[in-house]
């Protein structure tokens, strides 16, 4: 309850004001049909309210006072001087979960799933509403880290084979995608900040927004407010410093031609800033300002993208795409987790344990002759060599070049194939399954020898491994048989319709955009190409589609179909939803306006194989001083060959 604005703040709330509040609550119940549970409701009093006054207000509203230890949806309503104690319940809640999991025999993949979906999701509401102390977040991370490396022990020392920073890095960079508690807390609080600064108009956000106001001065000065992609900071010239009055972005645009005022830009900014500004496309008609989150393609804030922005870079972590390919393999999660452990060098082989701890027997438990290195255990040990050669593929592991753990991941993700077989996706998947399951089975046999003292017979090991491979391959065959092959050839348009294929070729900070128009017979009506000062492929693809419609209008084509291999552009131009990609958001109204100039106009996405003529046309020109145009008789040789291939495919269809 706030005092009236006409009264000084120290003056207490009167009895009449309490009665008015009670009447408002009753009116709410009467209008909404709901009933307030007064027994579960509570009042918050400041320290200056005397006891008699508290008693009178509680009696009038039939509610009790909320204690300092009260919580709402598990989060504390008040904090004391010791905020670490206030949020200790998060540690207790996590430990109670971990205690139940410790009595179970969980695989590495099972632990990963529980950590991501349960353990790190427990404090989500508290993290979204409170700034949790770093000490509490560190203890949450410590408990999760212990459960990952030593799931059956609540206390005592344990061996961590990889740093927590590595495990919390993205899966595409060699980590496991675990979340650091404090960074997750910051990302969730950033969502609340975004709600305040954006156009969200809920009652809660309005209340928060009223706490923050602009201090009025000379107005919004262009260059001091961020809002332009492509560079981090502005370098202002002396002209901007001396400029008086308010300079907004609209002042830098020539309203007649809807282009940037280059003379004014060069007067106000340095060359780097001017180049970045001029790469921003300008819509044909003025539009209101829009706040976008540039770390998401559609400009909408997400906690996931905020967390990624808040992550520190780890230069020691490989950014190779083999990790992304590993997690996309059609394998059981347990097998993929094993390959990750193998590739990350965290398998507790005898040699690794000896080098890490300094004691123990480093010899291989299967052959007892050489040290148990990764290379020896999986490729040079007599047992491993017999396993590889005894399977149906009859591979010789001594011919496989493996020098490091990452080479083994590369072997599984990109198995060696003969030149003519590289395009066979099914064969590549079968080889990946073969390598992954063989490596995992060798490790299983090794563990039986170490922990149970059992060295499994070679024939029994081969038989069990063949059965497991057959299970995986039968499932793979079912998926392959259900897949519908895509049309990889260019298709002719209907009668009286012109098909426009567009594509771009990005070279440095410039792009070549190409458009080719063809009729129902497949004959080339006309082809165009030009160079634009755009380095972003998505923006260049959108500009190419817009240019294609402008060319079609100038050629008086009545009915058109626009095809592009940029699915993002086609989806955004075909869909009228408000959540478009922010980089091309300014071009969408222009494309829709141009589409209205035709009797019929539609957009279609095709694969690169069905767009090769436009692709070759864009690749043929790296430097053009003006617009290039030609007909079927003057096509460049590479474009002509691609066109002939399309005609051949058209005749076979």
UniProtKB/TrEMBL annotation:
Residues 301-388 form the Reverse transcriptase zinc-binding domain. GO terms for molecular function: nucleic acid binding; RNA-DNA hybrid ribonuclease activity. Gene3D superfamilies: Ribonuclease H-like superfamily/Ribonuclease H. Residues 501-620 form the RNase H type-1 domain. It holds the Pfam family zf-RVT. It comes from the Eukaryota. This is RNase H type-1 domain-containing protein.
């Amino acid at each position: 309850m706030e005092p009236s604005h006409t009264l000084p703040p120290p003056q207490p709330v009167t009895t009449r004001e309490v009665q008015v509040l009670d009447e408002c609550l009753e009116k709410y119940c009467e209008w909404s049909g709901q009933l307030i549970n007064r027994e579960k409701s509570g009042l918050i009093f400041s320290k200056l309210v005397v006891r008699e006054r508290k008693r009178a207000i509680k009696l009038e509203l039939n509610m009790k006072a909320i204690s300092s230890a009260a919580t709402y949806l598990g989060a504390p309503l008040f904090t004391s001087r010791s905020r670490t104690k206030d949020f200790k319940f998060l540690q207790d809640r996590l430990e109670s979960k971990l205690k139940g999991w410790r009595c179970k025999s969980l695989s590495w993949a099972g632990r990963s799933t529980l950590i991501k979906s349960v353990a790190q999701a427990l404090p989500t509401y508290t993290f979204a509403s409170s700034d949790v102390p770093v000490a509490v977040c560190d203890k949450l991370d410590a408990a999760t880290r212990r459960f990952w490396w030593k799931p059956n022990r609540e206390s005592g020392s344990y061996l961590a084979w990889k740093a927590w920073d590595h495990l919390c890095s993205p899966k595409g960079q060699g980590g496991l995608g675990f979340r650091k508690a404090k960074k997750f807390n910051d990302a969730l609080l950033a969502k609340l900040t975004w709600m305040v600064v954006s156009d969200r108009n809920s009652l809660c956000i309005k209340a928060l927004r009223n706490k923050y106001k602009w201090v009025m001065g000379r107005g919004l000065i262009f260059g001091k407010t961020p809002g332009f992609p492509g560079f981090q900071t502005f370098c202002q010239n002396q002209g901007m410093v001396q400029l008086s009055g308010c300079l907004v972005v609209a002042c830098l645009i020539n309203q007649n031609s809807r282009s940037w005022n280059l003379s004014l830009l060069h007067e106000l900014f340095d060359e780097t800033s001017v180049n970045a500004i001029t790469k921003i496309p300008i819509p044909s008609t003025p539009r209101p300002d829009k706040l976008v989150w540039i770390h998401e393609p559609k400009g909408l804030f997400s906690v996931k993208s905020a967390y990624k922005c808040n992550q520190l870079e780890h230069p020691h972590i490989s950014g190779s795409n083999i990790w992304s390919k590993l997690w996309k393999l059609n394998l059981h999660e347990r097998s993929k987790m094993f390959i990750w452990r193998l590739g990350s060098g965290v398998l507790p082989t005898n040699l690794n344990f000896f080098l890490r701890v300094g004691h123990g027997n480093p010899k291989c438990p299967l052959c007892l002759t050489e040290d148990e290195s990764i290379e020896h255990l999986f490729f040079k040990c007599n047992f491993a060599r017999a396993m590889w050669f005894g399977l149906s593929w009859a591979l010789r592991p001594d011919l496989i070049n493996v020098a490091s753990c990452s080479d083994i991941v590369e072997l599984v993700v990109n198995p060696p194939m003969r030149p003519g077989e590289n395009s066979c996706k099914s064969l590549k998947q079968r080889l990946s399954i073969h390598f992954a399951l063989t490596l995992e089975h060798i490790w299983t046999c090794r563990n039986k020898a170490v922990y149970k003292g059992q060295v499994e017979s070679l024939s029994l090991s081969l038989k069990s491994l063949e059965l497991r491979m057959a299970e995986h391959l039968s499932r793979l065959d079912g998926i392959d048989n259900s897949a519908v092959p895509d049309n990889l050839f260019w298709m002719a348009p209907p009668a009286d319709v012109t098909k426009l294929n567009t594509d771009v070729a990005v070279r440095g900070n410039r792009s070549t955009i190409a458009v080719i128009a063809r009729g129902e017979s497949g004959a080339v009506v006309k082809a165009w190409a030009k160079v634009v000062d755009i380095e972003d492929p998505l923006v260049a693809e959108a500009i190419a589609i817009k240019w294609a419609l402008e060319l079609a209008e100038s050629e008086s084509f009545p009915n058109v179909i626009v095809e592009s291999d940029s699915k993002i552009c086609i989806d955004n131009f075909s869909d009228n939803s408000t959540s478009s990609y922010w980089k091309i958001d300014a071009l969408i109204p222009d494309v829709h306006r141009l589409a209205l100039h035709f009797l019929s106009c539609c957009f279609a996405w095709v694969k690169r194989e069905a767009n090769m003529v436009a692709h070759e046309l864009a690749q043929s020109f790296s430097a053009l001083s003006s617009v290039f145009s030609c007909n079927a008789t003057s096509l460049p040789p590479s474009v002509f060959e691609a066109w002939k291939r399309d005609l051949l495919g058209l005749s076979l269809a």
